[in-house]
Design goal:
By secondary structure, this protein is of the alpha/beta class. The chain has one domain: 3-Layer(aba) Sandwich (Rossmann fold), CATH 3.40.50.360. Helices cover 40% and strands 16% of the residues. Helix 3 links the parallel strand 3 and strand 4. The longest helix has 22 residues. It is globular, with a radius of gyration of 15 Å. It starts with a strand and ends with a helix.
């Protein structure tokens, strides 16, 4: 059993990565292998509507996306994490979501029945829209999305500030525990 957390922040080791690592730690405590994948520094280009993925499970755009897509197919759970950028998920994560979503949707829906959900970090606002935006991706692809004790959001602007948000940390931790619980139930 494996869970992966995909961090869509262009900032390495920032608040989004911190909260994702924290959630993965909660999952790992339950005996499930975890992996954090940073999109920062990778070349992930936007979809160009070539429609090749309608005919075969591939994407002709030569960048860093497809190896991650393969890892997603092998995982039992996927977390997508984003800071709020101008009221929305980062462009990097949205490009990633569009392309992996189209490839999966057009090729047997390999994520259907997996566990997944969003994590969002905001300095002040935009977290609810961003959380809904990410949640819709999970829903259209047929994921089971567990809840937590609140929406999967945390607050922090400067690097490390998210560690002061006790409610956000608690929510992320409980989200991780619920992911682990659901993975185990689905595998039983």
């Amino acid at each position: 059993m494996k869970a992966i957390g995909i961090v869509g922040s262009p900032r390495k080791k920032g608040n989004t990565e911190i909260i994702t690592r924290y959630t993965l730690k909660a999952i790992g405590e339950e005996g499930i292998e975890t992996e954090l994948i940073r999109l920062a520094g990778l070349n992930i280009r936007p979809c160009n509507a070539c429609m090749v993925c309608e005919k075969e499970e591939t994407c002709p755009i030569d960048d860093d996306l497809f190896p991650i897509y393969r890892k997603m197919k092998e995982a039992d759970a996927i977390i997508l994490a984003s800071p709020v950028y101008f009221g929305s998920a980062t462009a990097l994560l949205k490009a990633f979501m569009e392309r992996t979503g189209y490839i999966a949707y057009n090729n047997g829906r390999p994520f259907e029945g997996k566990v997944g959900g969003p994590l969002v970090v905001a300095e002040r606002s935009g977290q609810n829209f961003t959380s809904a935006e990410l949640t819709c991706w999970f829903q259209i692809l047929g994921f089971f999305t567990p809840g937590s004790t609140y929406w999967n959001i945390a607050f922090g602007g400067e690097k490390g500030e998210v560690e002061k948000d006790q409610e956000g940390l608690s929510t992320a931790w409980n989200f991780g525990k619920n992911i682990a619980f659901l993975i185990k139930k689905l595998k039983a």
